[in-house]
Specification:
It contains five helices and nine strands; from the N terminus they run H-E-E-H-E-E-H-E-E-H-E-E-E-H. By secondary structure, it is an alpha+beta fold.
């Protein structure tokens, strides 16, 4: 799907946030997909759709269909990636996305950016600034590593 074609292929209701597939010039395709919610289409991989050869979140597509531009970082305010009503979408910078990222289930500390280096038995603190990882240091105890990470969130 090409970005210029999105408006002819998908209808967006900004109040409900529903993206609906519009009919195409293919009767077989129309019987299977036309007027269906995009989220339940076989063409969708999770919460993403392929546009111009790249996977885009449905949130970005909804934002594009309403505003006419497609910023890189569109987030769902309530955290529900299926709730794409226009009042639930906002554009944020990359730093905000990194800072609010959920803690990984594989986290050894329970804190984003803090982990245990088992080979040296020390806690490592790090932060991503403008897409670049910044090493904050190794610490003997978890509380010092967390404090370093929290300080970096304020200063970076």
């Amino acid at each position: 799907m090409i970005l210029n074609d999105v408006k002819t292929l998908i209808h967006y209701n900004p109040d409900t946030g529903i993206l609906m597939l519009l009919p195409r010039n293919n009767d077989t395709w129309n019987k299977l997909h036309a007027f269906r919610d995009v989220r339940y289409s076989a063409e969708i991989a999770g919460h993403r759709i392929r546009i111009d050869g790249k996977m885009c979140s449905l949130s970005r597509v909804a934002y594009f269909l309403h505003h006419g531009n497609m910023p890189r970082n569109v987030v769902n305010i309530d955290g529900d990636s299926f709730n794409n009503s226009i009042t639930n979408l906002r554009v944020v910078d990359l730093g905000w996305v990194s800072a609010t990222r959920k803690v990984s289930t594989r986290s050894t500390s329970g804190y984003t950016g803090v982990g245990l280096r088992k080979d040296i038995n020390k806690w490592r603190a790090q932060i991503s600034v403008d897409g670049v990882q910044k090493h904050l240091g190794y610490f003997d105890n978890l509380q010092d590593a967390i404090a370093a990470r929290e300080d970096a969130e304020i200063t970076c």
